[in-house]
Amino acid sequence: LSDRDGKIWYNGELVDWRNAQTHVLTHTLHYGMGVFEGVRAYETPKGAAIFRLQDHTNRLFNSAKIVGMNLPFTKEQINQAHIDVVKANGLTSCYFRPMAFYGSFKLGIAPKADDVQMIVAAWAWGAYLGEEGLRKGIRCKISSFTRHHPNVTMIKAKANGNYMNSIMANTEAHQSGYDEAILLDAAGYVAEGSGENIFVIKDGVLYTPALDVALDGITRRTVMEIATAMGVKVVEKRITRDELYVADEVFFTGTAAEVTPIREIDNRQIGIGERGELTTEIQKRFFDIVQGRNPDYEHYLTYVG
Ligand code: PMP
Question: Looking at the structure, do residues 178 and 283 belong to the same domain, yes or no?
């Protein structure tokens, strides 16, 4: 990933991709204290459009506030950086990685408060859980790793170090022959995927865990809005592992994962064992919105121009 043509926004400048480097004594590399986002731009009839950019940037700044980092740029500058990297790299659709991290000024546990570095990178990235996964659904495993306790790592912060837990869960799932992990919270209830929120459909009602155990996903919010517009009742509640097994449909949401059906959990077929009826409709509406085919949701699109 480091050896490419193109530009990365780095502390206010568009620098050559290969030169967007940092020192091995970078504080965040050692302790994982940093915050980031995952954002997508889609090709629309009016050119590339970034989906819910302001919401992602707001979450980035909230994450920084939660972990106590002072970001040295304004939200407007970070929003503009996204537009600039799309243009500088000639992209029509892409994934973005904005991140704030502590530099190498000092390496004690306490970082130098004003040594905060920021990047916004963008590159073309297809379906995170595969095109086939989007169409047919994926196979998941309940992880042996527990999701974060809200007073250990901060769940509402999309913080770098939180992803150690995600990586271990995802790796374990892959090594066991599954596509993705589903993590339970410290009390044993369903929390989320390693990088996705989770939804359950039972008797026409859409259920999802409340935000005390999962990231406040922006795709999650969009899907709840879509379902409500469809006349589907949406309920946030505690969900047990066995409720997943007997659900009619289960799916993941995420900026990377989009709306990905889950067809199997712990070797039990979920519903009809393929993308379910409601999941199909929600997924279709989601892609219509992000790809600029639904004027009711234009306010979520930032056209790159
Ligand atoms: N949960 C976790 C742990 C994640 O990493 C992500 C991806 N950001 C999500 C949920 C989904 O959030 P969003 O829809 O905002 O991408």
Answer: yes
Task: Tell whether 146 and 255 lie within a shared domain.
Answer: yes
- 158 noted as active-site residue: yes
Q: Who lines ligand 1 at CB under 6 A?
A: 38, 158, 166, 192, 195-197, 214-215, 217-220, 253-255
Q: Among residues 123, 149, 175, which one ends one of the domains?
A: 123
Q: What is the DSSP string of the chain?
A: --S-SSEEEETTEEEEGGG----TT-HHHHH--EEE--EEEEEETTEEEEETHHHHHHHHHHHHHHHT---SS-HHHHHHHHHHHHHHTT-SSEEEEEEEEE-SS--SSSPPTT-EEEEEEEE----TT-HHHHHH-EEEEEEEEEPPPTTTS-TTS-BGGGHHHHHHHHHHHHHTT-SEEEEE-TTSSEEEESS-EEEEEETTEEEE--TTSS---HHHHHHHHHHHHTT--EEE----HHHHHT-SEEEEEETTTEEEEEEEETTEE-TTSS--HHHHHHHHHHHHHHTT--GGGGGGEEE--
Q: Is residue 305 very low, low, confident or very high in pLDDT (cuts 50, 70, 90)?
A: confident
Q: What pTM, to 2 d.p., does this model score?
A: 0.97
Q: How far is the CA of 231 from the centre of ligand 1 (A)?
A: 25
Protein residue closest via CA to atom 4 of ligand 1: 195
pLDDT per position as a tens digit, 114-158: 999 999 999 999 889 999 999 999 999 999 999 999 899 888 999
Q: What is the ipTM of this complex?
A: 0.99
Query: What distance in angstroms lies between residue 217's CA and the mean position of ligand 1's atoms?
Result: 5
